[in-house]
Amino acid sequence: MNDAAIGIFDSGMGGLTVLRALMARLPNENFIYLGDTARLPYGTKSPETIIRYSVQAAGALVKRRIKLLVVACNTASSVAIPYLREAFAPLPVIDVITPGAEAALAASPKGPIAVIATEATVNGRAYVRAIRAHAADVGVVQQACPLFVPLAEEGLIEGPIAELVAHRYLDPLMAQKPHALVLGCTHYPALKNTISKVVGHEVTLVDSAATTALSVEKMLRKAETMREGEQSYSFLVTDLAERFARVGKIFLGRAIPMDLVEPIDL
Amino acid sequence: MNDAAIGIFDSGMGGLTVLRALMARLPNENFIYLGDTARLPYGTKSPETIIRYSVQAAGALVKRRIKLLVVACNTASSVAIPYLREAFAPLPVIDVITPGAEAALAASPKGPIAVIATEATVNGRAYVRAIRAHAADVGVVQQACPLFVPLAEEGLIEGPIAELVAHRYLDPLMAQKPHALVLGCTHYPALKNTISKVVGHEVTLVDSAATTALSVEKMLRKAETMREGEQSYSFLVTDLAERFARVGKIFLGRAIPMDLVEPIDL
Fold first, then answer.
1. Residue B218: phi, psi to the nearest 5?
2. How far apart, in whole angstroms, are the C-alpha atoms of residue A189 and residue A210?
3. A145 is a catalytic site residue
4. Under 8 Å between Cβ of B185 and B115
5. Checking phi first, is residue B39 left (phi over 0); if not, alpha (psi -120 to 50) or beta?
6. Does the annotation mark A185 as catalytic?
7. Which run of H or E residues covers position A234?
8. Cis peptide upstream of residue B109 (ω within 30 degrees of 0)
9. HEC sequence for B204-223
């Protein structure tokens, strides 16, 4: 059982930043990453569709024998977690919202905390609930930023267009004087420099990849399912493997060899 | 057979502009429109995935007895037409590329002609082939505009952000001095004012909805399958019916009653 892989699921490639943090923290584990690249983005879809797609994607990982599931996609984490836990019990399922909320509270214990995310994540209010579960009185303000994902994917992460769009989304949030800003979508860290320029350096930007990796480590230690041996990783994708390997290496921070990428149909 | 509906398929809601033109031109027909809203956009997907999704979507329309299929999505038209014709022969299949190319040549017989479209449409070079089939010597320049769809969907169709993005995509094209610009994605007409401002009024903007409706009329007349009776229309969608009805009325130009929208699973 300890040799079974850690499964990571994301709507596309953004979740590779979470895999990157996991690989840095857990040097002896096997990882299998599924990117539902044919059906991305999840952030503009209805909760019903996000749940259905998430259960299908997780099912493909479970079939390949995993000991733990990480939902690296904020949108799926926000909407589908209870359904995934029920569908695949007793498999441990870790989301990126809870660690992100904890990191935000660590950075700004009294708030207010600002959250930027996809439409679906904002509408699901999962970050608001997760923050209030720890600190009922902390103010939370949210803003959906639908143009950030296409900007990041087109590499328009700095310059006048990125800044104008960032001002459009962030200026109303900043009027609330938050001390921490949660980057509640795995694509947003690509725009970190522009976001930081617009909100000012006194606002802490919270990216949940590192804290999610820490949660995974804690859970493996508790369940005594840590592995010993050499790290390995592979990928499942629902659209073209070539594009995944090419664009994905930006998020993963290392090359993605094509022989590790298997196209599947969900 | 004449009473069978005209099926229209699009990746989402943009194709409703084509349905609108069809309804204006053919007042006695039944229409059934399928929007694959759960899996949009098609424009960034691989040809293999676009073909698979298009055949599934068309199949759902064929099951409901249609006499003609209109592929209102430029991306699906660019990539999947031969596969759809083969899969559903002898059903007549009309795409939006051929009428768009003809309209562009009518506006600028000697060229050069500029085409803006999704990544998949540009890579498939369908507009280039369709224009050159009529006029081998006409110069064609293409540009993918991936940010135009999210801008249109967020209603950011005018103002400094839309103009900066339009300059980014269109300035290099305008260096080629085209006389016509094909709006090769059903979302782009929403940005018509901004595009026109950036390229200048001497460049004719070509939107294929009206010419596609004309092609459909011609084909029905030729096949003697025109219908007599009152017009009717209904919708199939793969994601939430509510959002389709709400956003879709902008593209269709009239209200979409919820009882005409049926959610389906492909």
1. -60, -45
2. 12
3. no
4. no
5. alpha
6. yes
7. strand A232-237
8. no
9. EEECCHHHHHHHHHHHHHHH
If pLDDT is split at 50, 70 and 90, which confidence band does B103 have?
very high
Structure tokens at B76: 């699906």
Q: How confident is the model at residue A44 (pLDDT cuts 50, 70, 90)?
A: confident
Q: Is-cis flag, bond preceding B112, omega within 30? A: yes
Which residues of chain B have a CB within 8 Å of the CB of A171? none
Average pLDDT over residues A47-71: 97
Report the Cα B154 to chain-centroid distance in Å.
19
* Nearest residue of chain A to residue B45 (CA atoms): A38
Give the type of residue at A230.
Answer: E
Q: What is the spatial order of strands in the sheet that B66-71 belongs to?
A: B93-95, B66-71, B5-10, B30-35, B232-237, B261-263
**Beta strands A93-95; A140-144: pairing state:** unpaired
H or E segment and range at residue B191: none
Q: What is the pLDDT of residues A150-185, one digit of tens each?
A: 998 888 999 999 999 999 999 999 999 999 999 999
Q: Over range A34-48, report the average pLDDT.
A: 93
Residue B161: exposure state from Cβ atoms within 10 A (0-12, 13-18, ≥19): buried
Cross-strand bridge partners of residue B31: B6, B233
DSSP A260: G
Backbone angles phi, psi at B213, to 5 degrees: -60, -40
| pLDDT of A1 over the 90 cut | no
Question: Quick one: pLDDT at residue B170?
Answer: 98
**Token pair 């290496």 is at which residue?**
A249
Chain A and chain B share a number of CB contacts under 8 A equal to 57
Of the candidates A190, A184, A180, A148, the residue with the CA atom closest to the CA atom of residue A74: A184
CB-CB neighbors (< 8 A) of B243 in chain A:
46
- The answer to whether B237 and B40 are in contact (CB under 8 A) is no
